Every structure is written in structure tokens, then in C-alpha cells.
Amino acid sequence: NFMCKCVVTGGIIPTVAQQLHSENIERVVQEALERSGVDPSQLSAVATTVKPGLALSLSIGLKFSQRFVRQHNKPFIPIHHMEAHALTARMLHPIAFPFLVLLISGGHSLLAVARGVDDFLLLGYSLDESPGDILDKVARRLSLTKHPQCSTLSGGQAIELLAKSGDRMRFRFTTPMGQTHDCCFSFAGLRNQVTMMIKKKEAEEGIEQGTLLSCVNDIAAATQHTVATHLAKRTHRAILFCQANGLLPASSPTLVLSGGVASNQYIRKALTVITETTGLHLLCPPAKFCTDNGVMIAWNGVERLREGKGILPPNVDVFYEPKAPLGVDMTAEVKAAGIRLPSVRIRIPN
């Protein structure tokens, strides 16, 4: 129901999300226990996202979990949502710390060095919108729900599908922050570029907003390519900063790509160009573990339980935090390094 309503509304509406969470959380938890054949008494602990995110949704999960752990006298493990994304790959691959992480989703984008289960160095983050946000907003502005191939897809999925048959060179959008030598991201200016181009093409074709343009595939391809290039360039600088400062192992350094936008194959290929150029190994969880999911929260709980970090008794009051940075902020040091990127051509066949 939640995903269906997201597609219909073109994104998440906090009050709708809260209502759906409230209506379904008890049933979902009960079904999970029944399918697993596990009684609450057999649980080692309960892990729940408490930061960052939509306040209305976080409150539902936290209230339910605190009632649950007190009822069953179980330890409680508060989870940082972005930490969970970063650690998911360790559930599937034996990745040793430290490694570089690029998290890209509908709500976030950041680059960080994971040095331990609760030890992160933040190298860059979005200054405004997220990559998932711009893809959804461009899809909405292009009215892609009216496209026969896209009516049941999310905005990001629609852009990726149409881009496969589009000419990314037809519209030349400027890659953001080209003269800012750090690892932060910005997508608001790019969205404005795309919106202005859409308005121009609507005027040329003599159509009203809300009518499909003849060139939607080309706009989708150009937008996706520019987003991918921006992500690749900031990641390239982060890798060079890590190499210059000994933050990654000399042998088999790894870049983990996670978050909902990580399922975009074009973006994965753009980042593969960078990792092959710099000698890193790119790892990305399967799509079902890239998008927000309960498994990654449970795994984060396992990681913390193993090391005895952040485990609370059931009676401790915990508060949710809608805004919460990840780790130690190193963005000023990255900017001060002023690393200029060597030219790398990101050529990806459709």
C-alpha cells in the first residue's frame, strides 16, 4: 500500500506515510515473527531506526518498539539509517574496515569512510536536494505517469527506462559545482536547468504543462547522465583524498554503493569507470537491499550486538532525530585539500 500510494502521489507525503505505518506496523511485525517461527522470548534484541528521517514515521516505529521491548524485556538498539545502508554490504561480503561508502537515495546523498561499526568520517553530503529527489521531480515535471511505459513506475525508474532509448548529448546540462573542489553534492541548480529546458521545449512544441513532450527520452537521458557525472566526480575526489591521507587500505580498497538510487544501472556504470581508473573494487548490494528495508536495520543491530555498542536496556527513554549527520565531519579538510580532478571520460553505451 505504501509504495502504491508513493507512485500515485509522485512521492512520499509525511502524513500519509505516518498513517500507513501506524495501520500496518503491528501486523507486519507479527507476520515476520510467525513466518520465522520465532517467539519474542527468543529474540536477542530489537533494532529500530531512530534517525534521520521523517519525524512522523520515526515516531511510529520508535513508540511501537519501546512498547515491545518493555513488554518482552529485551535490549533495544537505536539505529542510524545511513549507518545501516553503509553496513549492509558486510552482510553479503566479507568486507573489512575501512572502506569508502557512497550512499544515494531519495532523501540523502553522502560520501563517508567506514572505519568501524560506529566509526565514520564524513567527506561530503548534499547541500540541498538528493539525487533521488531530482529524478522524481524531473519525472513529475515531464508528466511521465502519463507515458504508456511509465504509469506504474516511480520517477527514478521512469527516467532510467526512457533514458535507455534517449540521446544524452541532445541537451547539454552543466555538471554542478565544477569550480568547488570538495566532495559535497548539489542538485537544485541542475533541476532548475532541466525545468527551464522543459519550458523552452513546451513553448516550441506549443503544448501546455502536463502534456508529454516528444523529446522526453532525450531529457531523461541528459538528466540521468549529468546526475551520474556529478556523483562520479565527487566520488573520484573522495577516493583521491583517501589515497593521499592513507584512509583506505593499500591492497584491495573498496567502494560500497548503497541507497535506493544505487539500483540505477547507468549510475553504477559511471561509478565503475571511476573505480577502475583509481584501482578500487566497487560493491553494491542487490536492489532489494539498496532501497530502504528492514533487513539492513536488523543487520546493523547484529553488527552492534556483536561488538556490544549502543545496546540499551528496555526501560531507557530514546528520542528520534529527524536530522542527524553521520560520523565526524571532514568536509572542511576535504575542501582545504583543493584536489583537482584528472580528466576522465564517462562513456557508457545505452
TrEMBL record:
Cellular localization per UniProt: Mitochondrion
Keyword field: Acyltransferase, Metal-binding, Mitochondrion, Transferase, Transit peptide, tRNA processing
EC number from the UniProt entry: 2.3.1.234
Catalytic reaction(s) noted: L-threonylcarbamoyladenylate + adenosine(37) in tRNA = N(6)-L-threonylcarbamoyladenosine(37) in tRNA + AMP + H(+)
GO molecular function: metal ion binding; tRNA N(6)-L-threonylcarbamoyladenine synthase activity
Residue ranges occupied by any Gcp-like domain in the UniProt entry: 9-299
Protein name in the entry: N(6)-L-threonylcarbamoyladenine synthase
